[in-house]
Specification:
Chains A, B: InterPro entries: HTH_LacI (IPR000843), Lambda_DNA-bd_dom_sf (IPR010982), Peripla_BP/Lac1_sug-bd_dom (IPR001761), Peripla_BP_I (IPR028082). The structure is a homodimer. The first copy, chain A, is an alpha/beta fold. Chain A contains 12 helices and 15 strands. Chain B binds a DNA duplex through β1, β3, α2 and α4.
Chain lengths: ~400, ~400
Amino acid sequence: MIACPKCSEVGSIMKAGYVRNKQRYVCKNCNYFFTLSAPEQLSSTKKSRRHQTTIIDIARSIGVSNSTVSRALHGHVDINPETRQAVLDMAAKLDYQPNQLAYNLVKSKTNTIGMIVPEFHNPFFPNVIIGAHDVLTAEGYNLTIMQSNESYAVEVSNTKAMLANRIDGLLISLTQETNSFEHLQVFEKRGIPLILFNRVCDDVAAPKVVVNDFEASFMAVEHLILNGYERIAHLGGPLNLLVSRERLRGYRAALEKHGKSIEEDLIIQGMLSQQKARIYGKYLLELENRPDAVFAVNDSAAIEIMLMAAEKGIRVPEELGVVGFSDNPESAYIGPGLTTIRQPTLEMGKTTAKWILQMLDAEEEMNFPQERILKTELVIRGSSLRKA
Amino acid sequence: MIACPKCSEVGSIMKAGYVRNKQRYVCKNCNYFFTLSAPEQLSSTKKSRRHQTTIIDIARSIGVSNSTVSRALHGHVDINPETRQAVLDMAAKLDYQPNQLAYNLVKSKTNTIGMIVPEFHNPFFPNVIIGAHDVLTAEGYNLTIMQSNESYAVEVSNTKAMLANRIDGLLISLTQETNSFEHLQVFEKRGIPLILFNRVCDDVAAPKVVVNDFEASFMAVEHLILNGYERIAHLGGPLNLLVSRERLRGYRAALEKHGKSIEEDLIIQGMLSQQKARIYGKYLLELENRPDAVFAVNDSAAIEIMLMAAEKGIRVPEELGVVGFSDNPESAYIGPGLTTIRQPTLEMGKTTAKWILQMLDAEEEMNFPQERILKTELVIRGSSLRKA
DNA sequence: AACGTATCCGCAAACGTTACCGATACTTTT
DNA sequence: AAAAGTATCGGTAACGTTTGCGGATACGTT
């Protein structure tokens, strides 16, 4: 028979249902409900969680209160130097590691900046990350990176995860697919600093860091024109990206300035995977009246064009001028060298990070300058030098 | 006169020192100590912290308890479907975002894996990151990345930060400088899963993921030998890195197998910045009896050699064979193409990540296989094809 | 003595969740 | 109808910090 844990009666116990698969009892005598704890089922599985020494441990071992320890560890004023030293010694002795999680919870901040990038394969974003990482860690912040993989759905889920993890601020570069922005407006609503970089949009009231795509594109195309190229094709990015539109605008503007007619069938926009680049390149180079130059929106597409030209026996730069965008490492080494536009990637990371730190410092919502435009540089190599 | 906030006596108040610059009083009647709160100093500065809706808010608005809400949100069994729906609706209505911080604290885990890499400039580590990131996010884990910048001190501080942030596991690739390992043994002591990859050492009892550096190096050098090169120099990495030693070992073994003598002054070890590569390359190419091939420990050094050879009018591959290591993107495009060893970077990231997830699943400290060796691939391009 | 001052320390309430242990009302079985 | 079982829900103690404010003590000053 079972005895009541409370009144120790033995005859008065009866069953009272199940609680989570455990038989439940009630004592008719003292009306006490209880379950029998599982017969100590030898659960060596349960691996008693290794105890991390906490502030409380320190407090107990030297006979002061938690608050004293906390204050001592943070160099607070209201503390006796001797006490402080004792705390510090004991902390060292017990190998105390502060629990950032508890700190985060009580302070409701994480000292972490989030960053979402669409992809990782070009050296562009890794470089931006380096830049941001450098200035953030120098200021004691962490950086957690997520990759949206050019998918809007993933981007949304990433932002949600960032919110749940209570990052202090977010740096984001949008997906090719991103056309709606509620997931970003949340940050504004919550008062969490947000900065868009590189792949930006106009629908979010947040600071933006970009490069001078229009000017860069203009420079590139003008450079081709000045080198005697007449019919310049444009292999552009998807038009829902602002950068693509800006670069297209620059292309058109340069042609117009120099009185060239714009041939719409020499303009192709779309997301430029390597495969697509091959398809579009084939189309362009097999046109019966083929262009004598191509301005591509990124270096890999430009390189694809150069390789294809080589296959077809079209000489670069004599019969075909090529200019890319980004200055990937391989662009310096290919064929005659690819003329391209170098982007200040590291600087972009650094300025973005510095900016968000400023926003964090300023408790008040200041009127920040809304956009920062970084300068690119035209790197002239062999692929565009017909005149010389 | 001042009235006692407790007993409302008026005449019995007298000063009792200062506390944090505020006048303090004591009531002689009820012996109550108090300070007068500052006269409500209109602090609109204080920007009332925007309230995040919590579980408690939901609970209150539909008149249930916190536990019920928590259970409802997690699809627990013990819950009435109607209640669950009500909770879910209210959560949506109030735009509830779970506070991961609180969750982390109570569960003492963060669903986050840390990763420390020495640098970011080669495409190698970014690619590893992509691989790891993919499998981790697929399993609902986050990845926070830190960069030790090839500095031991930074590496140590990184690991400390990781510990403080209570990551669930750590993936690390060591610094060139790292020769002591207490900062890693801590993880073992704490029972936090740890995996070394690429830059590993033997002094830490943790799983390791590496490539077959020895074999790869052997293959590369043998390939040079089979192509008729006689005196093969080796531009190696710093010898405290295991990879460097393995590659050196492979180099020696290949020479020995084919009965070549090993000329020690054709072997240079050291950290291969671009500048150093130039210096060493100059030394090698200006040797009065210069080598007819170079096996470099990374592609950038190999490319530096090729460029320098071009400057000096030394023809590659006719007069100088070159083989690199890593297959950087530029290696496919330079000069005659750089023969090099392709490393399975993505796979390295993936296997490392999968492995640590296994370790997390297995509560017990299982006997994991201690090392996993991934296969590399010799990519043969023009820079080493003299025979053909 | 009686009062004023400065210094140091402790109490306890947050922070938002989770999960254990019960409790209640209702349904089914004996 | 009593006993047993089921389905839901609530109370509350953790988790480890930080911090506002009250309390105690020792010392200085009338």
